[in-house]
């Protein structure tokens, strides 16, 4: 799982030159998390998760502060959290998470993206049962054995610990243990994470033939370009060449 996550993150970082779009999505997510709780990450766990993710994407402090100030200022702008599930070519599966102030617009745009790029929308639950809600941490400077012993000493159960060829280590844990794992790693001197996410990981991955893979990649690109879409999860392994 670590290799897949690492490849997707690198692929997005190298391909997506429109960093302003990424920052805008984070700004919206930070605002929503802050508005639905306290605008203080120490008392608002959802906000703390978003801010940790923002760090791994190098979101400027000005973007973060602007979103927090907007929430503190009592803005009446409201967003609905939506999840769409669907299918791409050759048995591929996708989950699309969105934040929107216009449900009809978002539904129409997501449906059009599927229909025009070899996919089709599914009903709620048609895909998500094949994914696991997972906390993922990526880090450098520690070995698998060191991380395992550290978590064991603190009686923290995790799903898996994987070391990649480049020496980076990925920890997979239950979502409810996100903060416990994170604080334990931080207390051990790990101050920066290459990945700190609550995500949806496919239980089984598939590899697509070249033509279907190109079509599927186009579908992902179109979905991620939509203003209201925050995250796209899928079950396709693009391989180490991507």
Automatic annotation (TrEMBL):
The keyword Transit peptide does not apply. Its main location: cytoplasm. It is found in: Cytoplasm. The keyword Transcription regulation applies. InterPro entries: Integrase-like_N (IPR017856), TACO1_YebC-like_2nd/3rd_dom (IPR048300), TACO1_YebC_N (IPR049083), Transcrip_reg_TACO1-like (IPR002876), Transcrip_reg_TACO1-like_dom3 (IPR026564), Transcrip_reg_TACO1_YeeN (IPR026562), YebC-like (IPR029072). Keywords: Cytoplasm, DNA-binding, Transcription, Transcription regulation. SUPFAM superfamilies: YebC-like. Pfam families: TACO1_YebC_N (PF20772), Transcrip_reg (PF01709). Residues 79-236 form the TACO1/YebC-like second and third domain. Residues 3-74 form the TACO1/YebC-like N-terminal domain. GO terms for molecular function: DNA binding. NCBIfam families: PRK00110.1, PRK12378.1, YebC/PmpR family DNA-binding transcriptional regulator. Belongs to the TACO1 family. YeeN subfamily. This is Probable transcriptional regulatory protein J2Z37_004288.
């Amino acid at each position: 799982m670590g290799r897949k996550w690492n490849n997707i993150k690198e692929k997005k970082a190298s391909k997506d030159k429109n960093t302003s779009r990424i920052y805008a999505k984070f700004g919206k997510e930070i605002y929503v998390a802050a508005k639905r709780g306290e605008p203080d990450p120490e008392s608002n766990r959802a906000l703390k998760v978003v801010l940790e993710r923002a760090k791994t994407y190098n979101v400027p402090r000005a973007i973060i502060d602007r979103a927090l100030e907007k929430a503190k200022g009592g803005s009446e702008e409201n967003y609905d959290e939506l999840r769409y599930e669907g299918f791409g070519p050759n048995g591929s599966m996708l989950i699309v998470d969105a934040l929107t102030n216009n449900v009809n617009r978002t539904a129409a745009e997501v449906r059009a993206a599927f229909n025009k790029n070899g996919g089709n929308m599914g009903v709620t639950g048609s895909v998500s049962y094949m994914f696991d809600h997972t906390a993922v941490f990526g880090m450098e400077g520690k070995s698998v054995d060191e991380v395992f012993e550290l978590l064991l000493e603190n009686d923290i159960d995790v799903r898996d610990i994987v070391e990649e060829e480049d020496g980076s280590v990925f920890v997979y844990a239950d979502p409810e243990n996100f903060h416990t794992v994170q604080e334990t790693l931080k207390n051990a001197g790990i101050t920066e994470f290459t990945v700190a996410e609550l995500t949806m990981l496919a239980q089984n991955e598939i590899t697509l033939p070249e033509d279907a893979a190109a079509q599927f990649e186009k579908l992902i690109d179109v979905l991620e370009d939509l203003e209201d879409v925050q995250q796209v999860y899928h079950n396709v392994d693009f391989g180490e060449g991507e």
